[in-house]
Amino acid sequence: MDVIQTIEDNIIINTTAIYYKKWMVNNPKSTLVLLHDSLGCTVLWREWPEDLAKALQCNVISYDRRGYGKSDNYTVKRPINYLEQEAEILDQLMNHWQISKPILFGFSDGASVATIYAGMFPKKISGLIVEGVHVLIEKETLQGVRDAQTTLETTQIARVLEKYHGNKVFDLYYAWTKTWLSEQHQSWNIEHFITKIEVPILVIQGEFDEFGTMKQVDAFDVAKGSVQKLLVPQAGHTAHKENKPLVFDKVVIFANQIVENEKMD
């Protein structure tokens, strides 16, 4: 039976405590770093980290970005390049963890951070997996954000999210929605980072993603590395939850290919 050891800790980055958790196996083949979505955190990955660690025989690390989950609150107004800032923070975390060439797996906002990181530091990772990634602003993106804001104001979603984010829920929600709906944000685009990505990429998108069309997926065609695409039938933005068997199997196959190729190099 696979034995998974876990460690939870915090690291101070620019005076803010960042929470992270590691799932560790004996003789790991590689490391997978998980990056959560705009309202997510480590706990909300549920069983995915442990399942991936067992299936891949790799260590898995997940962390809560500033203001999320078990990390410190962060109420500074988000600049338009806040996701680029998060990519730079990820680099500081990677240095702290002392991991070499991990595979990044980002979901939604976390996928955008992972994409930016892969373009900023193309030699520091071995592979990139993105799900529901935001590359550019579409009308579907804006409508999805508006709908999310309406959900906050008309349902009990805030009470549900308090289990994971405590009293930070409204700060998070409005930091996200107000930034994305602001006039200054409408020209936001990270395609220029994609042109610098050298590693293999897996792009996952739900067929009925509420936040974007296949334009987000096809934007990766300009990458230097190979690109695989998975369109998940009948799924929305959270494809890894809506069809775990399909997404999980594809992620494991893709990551294993990278690990095997790294061995041969």
What's the gist of this structure?
By secondary structure, this protein is of the alpha/beta class. The protein has helices spanning 48-56, 82-97, 109-120, 139-154, 157-165, 169-181, 191-194, 214-218, 239-242, 244-264; strands spanning 5-13, 16-24, 31-35, 59-63, 103-107, 127-131, 201-206, 227-232.
N-to-C SSE series? EEEHEHEHEHHHHEHEHH
Uncertain runs are none
Tell me the strand percentage band. Answer: 15-25%
| Structural domain tally | 1
Major pleated sheet = 8 strands, mixed
Strand order of the largest sheet: 1-2-4-3-5-6-7-8
Structure class: alpha/beta
What gap, in angstroms, lies between the N and C termini? 31 Å
CATH architecture group name: 3-Layer(aba) Sandwich
How many helices in DSSP terms?
10
| Proportion of residues in helical segments | 40-55%
Task: List the defining traits of the structure above.
globular; Rossmann fold; alpha/beta; single chain; 41% helix; 10 helices; 265 residues; 8 strands; 8-stranded mixed beta sheet
Describe the structure.
The chain is α/β, with parallel strands linked by helices. It has a single domain, classed as Alpha/Beta hydrolase fold, catalytic domain (Rossmann fold), CATH 3.40.50.1820. It has helices at 48-56, 82-97, 109-120, 139-154, 157-165, 169-181, 191-194, 214-218, 239-242, 244-264, and strands spanning 5-13, 16-24, 31-35, 59-63, 103-107, 127-131, 201-206, 227-232. Strand 1 and strand 2 (16-24) form a beta hairpin. Helix 1 crosses helix 10 and helix 4 (139-154) runs antiparallel to helix 6 (169-181). The radius of gyration is 17 Å and the shape is globular. The chain starts with a strand and ends with a helix. The mean pLDDT is 97.
